Amino acid sequence: MTATVDDSRKYFTGSVGIEGNMIVLVADDDSEEDRQRVEEFRAANNGGGLREVDGRGKLLMPGLVNTHTHVAMTLMRNMADDLPLMAWLHERVWPFEAQLKPHDITVGARLGMAEMLLSGTTTLVDMYWHEAAVAQAARDTGIRAVLCPSFIDGERMSEFERDLEETLAAAEGCDTLSVRPAPHAAYSCSAENLRRAVDLARRHRLGITIHVSETLDEQRIIRERHGCTPTEYLRDAGVFSVPAIAAHCVHVTDGDMEILRAHGVTVAHNPQSNMKLASGAAPVARMLAAGLNVSLGTDGASSNNDLDMWDEMRSASLLGKLTAGDPAVMPAYEVVKMATVDGAKAIGMEGMLGIIAEGAIADLILIDTEKPHWYPHNNPISALVYSAQAHDIHTVFVNGREVVSGGRLTGLDTLALMQEVSAVVSRIEGRL
Ligand SMILES: [Zn+2]
Q: Ligand 1 centroid to 129 CA: how many Å?
């Protein structure tokens, strides 16, 4: 079974052919002409060592796009829970992060990327600092990454420009890596520093990513300081004049939604992080009705506490229905698109990524559907959102390269990686 996430043909039984990093063949078993094309593809490629993956009992779909995370925060998983956002940041997260060296970030990022690939996520948008260290982990694991060096006002600001240059250099020449500046949020960045980031984005022809209206506190602080909403403040600082991803947008007015829509901003919805930190529920059904592009993100593993996009899809649908008081909103197909097509749109790769079509990039995942929680095979799209589990992922291709095979990473020793993570964390905790 192939779920294309293409509205013209949502799913079918057939074959998909890859050459290099591209999908070159999408063939339906029900079509005589397509069956002929499969035979021709086989004949043309057999001399060149064609590798065939048997998809029987499995479902093929585009890899998932996680549009908001802080992947190295896997190091803080289950370290500080059940606290309010500001206390959580000031008392636990920031002191731990102050101890992190670039190599620690690479180790934490590798762990998060291993978790992502094994659960079918093939692209992440990562916001952190020392993103060159995250770039190294992306190269090690083979995942596609949008690397977003972040800053707040104060000393972190002076490091930001160097961080951005280093990240651009680290991504150079690698077609699975791209870069975006990432101001942290409206409450932690002055208008002057926001404008600096926008100028840099424009100079390098990059987008931007930023946290927007995550909590009521943020709403109140910006209202007191500037007499407007965070969205209005960011618009006035020019943040939405370049392609932007706005993470969270939990507390937004109708006027804010119109600003985001008019500027083509993508909202990265993080339902599990918002629920766990009791930030609130983003009005996603209303955003979709207003014509906004909404993608999904897990946020960091310290506020979720995993990087599982299947969990996120299910939570997005359930929370959306509960918030709207309407079981018909956020239907399964719409949510699958948020995790694929709309995520690709968020990073400017619409039509190239997040879809199975000839001419698109081969970021693909094969899901084992021969499991009790998949039976009976009534509706594969519903199953993806309401029944699928992260460990159903069998095979993963990123940019045409097989990075997970039979549920195992092909290029990384998972056991050694987990041991290295434990060593890094004990060393840092010893210093706190
Ligand atoms: Zn975040």
A: 13
Which residues make Cβ contacts (< 8 Å) with residue 309, sequence separation at least 6?
64, 66, 119, 120, 121, 296, 298, 339, 390
Domain ranges of the chain: 2-62+359-409, 64-346
Name every residue whose Cβ is closer than 8 Å to that of residue 397 and which is 6 or more positions away in sequence.
Answer: 18, 63, 122, 362, 363, 364, 365, 403
Instruction: Measure 27 CA to ligand 1 centroid, in angstroms.
Output: 40
Residue 414 CA to residue 404 CA, distance in Å, equals 12
- 358 C-beta neighbours (distance < 10 Å), count: 12
| CATH number of the structural domain 64-346 | 3.20.20.140
State mean pLDDT over 267-274.
97
Strands 364-368 and 393-398 turn out to be antiparallel
Q: For residue 117, how far is its CA from the centre of ligand 1 (angstroms)?
A: 20
Paired with 268 in beta bridges are 247, 295
Distance 209 CA to ligand 1 centre (A): 10
The predicted-structure confidence for 33-90, as pLDDT tens digits, reads as follows 999 999 999 998 877 778 899 999 999 999 999 999 999 999 999 988 888 777 888 8
Ligand 1 center–CA 401 separation, angstroms: 29
Q: Measure the CA–CA gap between 243 and 232, rounded to whole angstroms.
A: 16
Distance CA 21, CA 28 (A): 21
From the CA of 9, how far away is ligand 1's center (Å)?
Answer: 35
Q: Position of tokens 């509960």?
A: 322
Provide the CATH topology of domain 2-62+359-409.
Urease, subunit C; domain 1 (2.30.40)
CB within 5 A of ion ligand 1: which residues?
299
Report CA(410)–ligand 1 centroid distance (Å). Answer: 29
The whole-angstrom separation of Cα 73 and Cα 113 is 11
User: Which token pair is 343?
Assistant: 């995520």
Distance (angstroms) between ligand 1 centre and the Cα of 387 equals: 27
Q: Over range 184-206, report the average pLDDT.
A: 96
pTM strictly above 0.90:
yes
CA of 398 to the centre of ligand 1 (A): 24
C-alpha of residue 43 to centroid of ligand 1, in Å: 49
